[in-house]
Amino acid sequence: MEELNGRxxxxxELRALALTNYGHFTxxxxxxxxxxxxxxxxxxxxxxxxxVFGAELDPGRLLEYLRRAxxxxxxxxxLRVTVFDPALDIGHIGGDADPAVxxxxxxxxxxxxxxxxxRSMEFVRDLPAVKSVGLFGALHQRRxxxxxxxxxxxxxxxxxxxxxxxxxxxxxxxxxxxxxxxADSLPGTTMELLRQVRDWRTEEVTLGRLGGFEAAxxxxxxxxxxxxxxxxxIAFAADHPVIDELRKAYFGIPDDQL
Length: 258
Description:
With about 260 residues, this protein is of the alpha+beta class. About 25% of the residues lie in helices and about 30% in strands.
């Protein structure tokens, strides 16, 4: 399913997205017509549109488009909302913007996923606080990690300070304490929801300090909470009770009707 501004979209209207690739997005999991953190997703789209295009998005308009994409029969799907301007191109990117909203849907996978092994790589995304469509750098690093035998990549800066994963936030467990790295990264909706139901602290985490943690986990809207078995050659307890607690807490967060 693909719709642009609430109607079927043709290939010509997607040329700017394919060739210029300037815009932003959010991804949410919908089950039974309901979404966890719906308000956070809408806030992200409105906020990022101001940064990327200097324009306003109407949340009511966004909700209208999302409701059209809800699977019939209440099944689970992952909805992606991409905001871009079909009229902007590489040579005239500075023009006044009239952003359009592309909604796509794909079947959702399961949320009880095995632990992953990740490789640390030095990389910082452009405008880390914005969920931009320009994913080449991040996906290139993910490809390199997977070609080296890992499941995914974890980004660090030039001082080996941990920030975020390829398309997910990361957290660590020390005793019964949950720690979020203090670094430039995307403010993920899943991590924000967890912060609202579980005490945690923020501190600078470097690769050299990872041995002081017992467990690590990844979060995003499509997978919820997923254990991390290792970062490079540092192993973590994938079955740590705090990770199980976080999963249960996440599933217990009330969702919102679209």
